[in-house]
Design a protein that fits this description.
5 helices; 0% strand
Length: 151
Amino acid sequence: MTVIRNESRVLLAALLAMSVNWVLVSAVMFALEHDAQPHVFSNMPQAMWWAIVTMATVGYGDIVPLTAGGRVFGGLVMVLGLASFAVPAGILATGFSNELRKRRSMISWQLVAKVPLFSHLEASRIAAIARLLQMEVRAAAAHDRAPRRAR
């Protein structure tokens, strides 16, 4: 919930962009296919149904473009749909990574602050020591993962 709260503005912007794309895609497909399939693309809600199903890559097949332009545009919409869902996923993944890093840093800071030798230091010095310790831990982990030479 912390990540969603922190990233809510960015996620809402991505949702708004997806909604605008959905309406624009629907309008273009309606213009491309209405004359060729007046019974299938009879109104904008029908075109919007096609757009959301295509952008979500579900593709029920109940409404499909027949014209060459409609098919080419449909292919582009499929790719656009993948990208549209990848953006919020990337935002959330970055948010989770940042939150995890903050929590690890806070835990390290708290552990260093509990050591009697460092308990009298100011917060910025404790943070610097915690960062140095984290760098040491990462270096040791990288060393453990390094391939060993045969003796």
